[in-house]
Amino acid sequence: MNTRSRIAFAVAAVAGAFGAWWALRPSWQVPLPTAATRAEVRMQDFRDALYFPVREFLSGGNPYDPAAMFAHWPVRQSFNLYQPYHLALHLPFALPGYRAGALAFAVVSLLLLVVLAAMAASRIRSRVPLALGTAALAALLVLSQVGKAQLYLGQVNPLVAVGAAGALLTRSSHPRLAAVALALAWLKPQFGLPLAILLFARGSRRVALSGTAVAAVASLPVVALLVARGGGLGPFLDTIAANLAHATGTDYGAVDSPTAQRVDLAAVLFRLTGWLAPAAEPLALAGVLAVSVLLVRRLDRAGDADATAVADLLTCLAVVVAVVHQPGDVLIAVPAATLVAVVWWRRRREHRWPLAGFAVAALAVPFAHVHVVDSAVRALFSVRAAVTLDGVAVVAAWLVLVVFAARHTARAARPEFVAGRAG
What we know:
Elements: H1 3-29, H2 44-58, H3 66-72, H4 85-89, H5 91-94, H6 98-122, H7 130-143, H8 145-153, H9 157-170, H10 175-185, H11 189-201, H12 205-230, H13 233-247, H14 265-273, H15 280-301, H16 305-322, H17 334-347, H18 353-363, H19 365-368, H20 371-380, H21 383-413, H22 415-422
Helix pairs in contact: 1-6, 1-7, 1-8, 6-7, 6-8, 6-9, 6-17, 7-8, 9-10, 10-11, 10-12, 11-12, 11-15, 11-16, 14-21, 15-16, 15-21, 16-17, 16-21, 17-18, 18-21, 20-21
């Protein structure tokens, strides 16, 4: 690195260190969970979706049973349908005391954010030194609302994001590694399912099938144990049905909740219109995937590395808007968005490419939605506007990229063009 790059690296490192310290504070300041502190927001996802579910599993119970979790532990949220292997993978964080486990988990999550930044920097290393890019992007992540929220709430999204981004980044060069990465993305099925479908459609069939199989095989021992404990497959399936029914009826998870932090298409349309179509969520899932599959395949066939970069970003956005997701889930798009931002800057004066820049700018909204911005939106508009802003921005980013991809590939998709090129 030259002198200017070294100075920039030092500034980014200092800013990132401060942001990391600030974001890690909740993990050692959070009070011990009791019935009186159920409403505590700090590390609530670590408490409700990791620490006590694993403790319930270790004590011989079924953490997927909402009634059991609420009866046995001081949790505010039910344990959603994470992959069962989650209970084994994160077991080390539930073995020590609560604060020690919370701090260890937050530190590992911070390191995963740095890994995600390094993955993003590796995509632009021809223009920015890898060390500088990693430091700058890591600092931006831990100072952004999305990055801080991962550590403040104790979410597993950093691991899922590394898995999803890794599957996209290595699907051609290292398919076995990509399959393992996809299995990590399957930790939350709302990531794994649409991503596997899109990877399969883009020609990475072995990665899609192998990654899904790895996740399933890793979960089988846990499922078998839960089925045996619960008295058979029937009671286990009843528990899963009760889990789904509870999740869809909560203020923070229901598609028709006016306050839920959701950014998927079905929830955003309800927020904007107040109308919920019959079967809105499966229709949104099918529609988003159908449109996105068609366009990412066209972009891949364009034979242009820049078009492939857009296809990666469109894949990430489709995963997020297709099915229930929250603002922090846009982490998976960081490496792809970084590359598309650089491509847009290089080609910004060319026809259609400003659309790609607009999509990246819209995707930046959840990252910039810090407390001062949220307070201003609430004061000027309403609480509903504040919780809808991120979703509108993410859906808009997907729609703009759909328009860009359709226009960019329109000429290549015309039969006469294909015939002429073949001749």
